[in-house]
Amino acid sequence: MEHIFSSACLLKVLLVCNLCFVVTCSNLEKRLLVNDGDYVESRLHQIDVQIQTLMAQSSSKDQKIAQLTNRLNEKDAQIMNLTNQLKSLRLSGHPSQVVAFTALLNHSITAGAQQIIRYDTTLTNTGNAYDSTSGIFEVPVSGIYSLSASLMGDPHNGIHLQLVQNGKELVRLWTGGGDSYELASHTINVRLDKHDRIWVQNLHQASVYASEKYNIFSGVLLFEGQF
User: 19-32: per-residue pLDDT in tens?
Assistant: First the structure.
């Protein structure tokens, strides 16, 4: 009987020890699971913080990119504006039409006092503002013009020619004769209005030598507009 009792007691002890071991292992597993859960939650929180930081940095960079893009667009607009202003400055005053003529006297004449010299051969007459039959240039558009005239005098007499605007002398050409062929010329820049009339006339009766192409009358529009 004692032997049986001892065996029974030993069995109970073993059962109790085994139960304690199971309980201990179960508690350990629970603690491990709790610790793992805390670790995972901590890591998730860290990842969320990192994501938020990266998103904030990305948003800041996007804002900087947007600011730089706006500044670049402003600079492009300024460049375009300056380019247009430069084009406007380059084009301002440039004639919308071309006016240019050169005519010459191809034969010698004796001109009376106040007689208009008819330069009868035109080399250039762009704009058709010069009339070779009358010797008069009628201004087609207001602006700054360059006018030129040249004179080859007869050696047997002195001669005065006048470059005239609407009957008013602008400049005078003169050769003295004296047994020599003398040459005189003038080029002037002058403001003219539309319908002004320009011509060359003799001051006193005298001969003009034109057996060769020395005597010319010419004009060209430099800048159009009211100056």
Answer: 555 445 555 555 55
